[in-house]
Amino acid sequence: MADFDPIFRWIEQGAVSTFLRESAVAFPLIVVLHTIGMGVLAGGGAAIDLRLLGVARQVPIAPLRRFLPLLWSALALNIGSGLLLLAAYPTKALTNPVFYVKMTLLALAVWVQATIAARTLTPDAPDTVSPSARRLAALSIFLWLAAITAGRLLAYTHTRMLVDLKAGF
After folding, report:
1. What is the pLDDT of residues 144-162, one digit of tens each?
2. Which of 150, 142, 130, 28 lies closest to 85 in space, CA to CA?
């Protein structure tokens, strides 16, 4: 990864990265927005998944489709806030293998959630759930939990904060 140090340094010395790291408000606010976005995205997805797994059977499946715009808006919030967090500490994230695990898990979780939405949350969706939909719902919950866990581990598994600053553990 040292080959990328000049790129990381260029980003870290940029106005946006410097502002995000040095502001008493900006970085914590972005972390809060990222957390809220993930809570809405993973929590809303988990609510749908749990219904497909048989929790709250009295709730019809088709109306759950109304939550999809909220989930996709939360995804957009997380992409935006995640890019800002990455801009603040590119070396910290991009030299950490856990970051790539998190990104892979997130991509899979979003793909599974979109598949559930397309196959199961149709306007005329029956309230009976196919075995394949239940398997996707279980996989979705696992992927969201794993992605969130990987995201939390990022704070504790890095070895470099900035190009010229090692992590102080």
Report:
1. 999 999 999 999 999 998 9
2. 28
- Burial of 105-136, coded b for 16+ CB within 10 Å and e otherwise, reads bbebbbebbeebbeebbeeebeeebeeebeeb
Q: Amino acid identity, residue 78?
A: N
Element (H, E) at 107: helix 97-119
* Entry pTM: 0.91
Query: Phi and psi of 82, rounded to 5°?
Result: -65, -40
Split into its structural domains, the chain has a count of 1
User: Which of 100, 114, 95 has the alpha carbon at shortest distance from 151?
Assistant: 100
Question: What is the domain range of residue 155?
Answer: 2-166
Q: Which amino acid is at 36?
A: I
Question: What is the Cα–Cα distance from 65 to 125, expressed in whole angstroms?
Answer: 10
